[in-house]
Amino acid sequence: MRVVIAGAGSVGRSIARELLGHGHEVTLIDRQPSAMRVAQVADADWLLADACELPTLRQVKADEADVVVAATGDDKANLVIAFLAKTEFGVPRTVARVNNPKNEWMFDEAWGVDVAVSTPRIMTAMVEEAVTVGDLVRIFTFHQSRADILEITLPVDSPIAGLRVGQIAWPPDTVLAAIVRDARPIAPSADDTLEGRDELLFVTGRDADESALEALLTHGPAAS
């Protein structure tokens, strides 16, 4: 996969190292000479230029990229980069960093953003996930489909602890995607039994009733 990353700060370099480690081809762009820390990501291609300008994106052959990542510290720049990548170069997938959560509403398909990543929101979710047992935590929202990834650590006294997955009627548009038990991920089957302290990961559609899922996890299946 060929990936162009605009923004060679700590976030951009970290993404580049991960992608290179998985065998992908990466180009890093930044307009600040101080960001040209080539030795830290030596296997990437580097370009000192402004990714908000069309000649720069032409120079890195954005039209041949599979993904463009707008990872600068400037939300306006990230929106422009995503918009140009999508509309001028037809990049199949754009990922944009949201620095200020107040700007999150703008990062959608109208601006050419396929996936928006809000670092503060993810960090908040990770903090909540680490300290909260028995509460649903929204880990991530897919901006294109509006699907959510939700997590809950099942309390030991949960009414659904001890039930088999197949015995539970999950709310509409709600899928139990994984069970994490003792740091081991389990692909849930109908015969798997839920246990207290299990970490449950759900994928929910845009029309899912989160309160119904929370009621099920808190009070158990409704009596028929």
Tell me about this structure:
This protein is an alpha/beta fold and about 220 residues long. It has 2 domains: about 1-115, NAD(P)-binding Rossmann-like Domain (Rossmann fold, 3-Layer(aba) Sandwich), CATH 3.40.50.720; about 130-220, Alpha-Beta Plaits (2-Layer Sandwich), CATH 3.30.70.1450. Helices cover about 25% and strands about 25% of the residues. The chain contains 5 helices and 11 strands, in the order βαββαβαββαβββββα. The protein has helices at about 10-20, 55-60, 75-85, 120-130, 210-220; strands spanning about 1-5, 25-30, 45-50, 65-70, 95-100, 115-120, 135-140, 150-155, 175-180, 185, 200-205. The strands form 2 sheets. The protein has a 6-stranded parallel β-sheet with strand order 3-2-1-4-5-6, sandwiched between helices. A 5-stranded antiparallel β-sheet has the order 7-8-11-9-10. The protein is elongated and about 60 Å long. The N and C termini lie far apart (about 50 Å). The mean pLDDT is about 90. InterPro entries: K_uptake_TrkA, NAD(P)-bd_dom_sf, RCK_C, RCK_C_sf, RCK_N, Trk_Ktr_HKT_K-transport. This is Trk system potassium uptake protein TrkA. Keywords: Ion transport, NAD, Potassium, Potassium transport, Transport.
